[in-house]
Amino acid sequence: MRKIHLAIIRQTYSSFGGAEKFIEVLANSLANKIQIKVTIICRKWEGDLPENISVIRISPFYTGRLTRDIGFMLAVKKHLKQNQYDVVQSHERLAFCDIYRAGDGIHWSWLRRKNKKLLFRLWVDFLSPYHLYQLWQERKIFVGSSVKKIVVNSSFIKQEALKFYPSSEKKLITIRNGVNTNTFQCAEKDLSQRQKVRTEYGIQREDKLLLFLGSGYERKGLNFALRVLTRLPKEFRLMIVGKDKHESKYIGMSKVLGLESRCVFLGPQPSSNKFYCLCDAFIFPTQYDPMPNAVLEAMSSSCVCYVSDASGATDYIKNAENGFIMSLDSPDDWAELIKKSFNNLDDRGQKARQTMVENNNQEMARRFEALYLEVAKS
What we know:
The longest helix has 18 residues, at 65-82. Helix 1 packs across helix 16, helix 10 packs across helix 14 (331-341) and helix 13 crosses helix 15. The chain is built from 16 helices and 13 strands. The strands form 2 sheets. Strands 3-2-1-4-5-6-7 form a 7-stranded parallel beta sheet. Strands 10-9-8-11-12-13 form a 6-stranded parallel beta sheet, with helices on both faces. By secondary structure, the protein is of the alpha/beta class. It starts with a strand and ends with a helix. It has 2 domains: 4-178 and 360-377, Rossmann fold (3-Layer(aba) Sandwich), CATH 3.40.50; 188-357, Glycogen Phosphorylase B (Rossmann fold).
């Protein structure tokens, strides 16, 4: 059987990006599939990939984010005309691919959600050439005829897609993210060293440690998490791991709220594994996240997660059974729930891990492989 040549398009690489983690997991899972050859097309890629996966770097000049995206789109389009691939999967909003993976969600919905309390900002965004370009490309993908399949990674995003683009229903296919449950687990040796490592970060034995992990603090809800912390007893601490160009603003906010001694800002870290094993629970009050890998990794590490209902991770969380789902209406409600449930986490943590064992990355890769075979034949 002839190998299917698959092209995966992602413009830039960040070791802290969810889409990049997904591509690494998928590429590693497909690396040994004899019927699929994988090429990644990007501006830059610094992640670890198997030797038999090739990377093509396309990096046209740009002066801002709009010219960056348009330049990359035109350069990729030219490359695809000059090179033959059996299946082209894009993680950028490009309307000339075979498969579009909507890992960044629905742009219309994100703009509305982030500006729902400040309508003037919504109009500013709608008049922005960059956002107009993203909305134009998104509409071509969902309403146009050239894209064969649109992969959404949660029921949440499928509902959003049907709300804004109801005619896209026949194109939509749901393939949820998986996680490597061997990588993300808390071994006995990790747990035996847990308090020693916590002490290195200033966390005492009696402290109750919440972990916030993710990049892009505004969208992931760090502001809300800090407000929740103000309503919790003083033994509750918050560890923040991630990358944000405005991190100093949030450090300043913690000081204004009187939380300086209760917050540990660690910035970006090369590996997130150990932090799931250090914390007592994971908090993720995101404004919008199609399927947060951090939540899946935390669950795989037997962490109980408190997440907002604006997240695709709600596909995996059964409320009050293996985690908790809350609206973003009130930080008081979050604080009250955390206080009531915090002394009964172990059983829920084990159930969270079992959920991810049953929905690991191999199952995700199997479904993508079947999709590639289907699209290649069409």
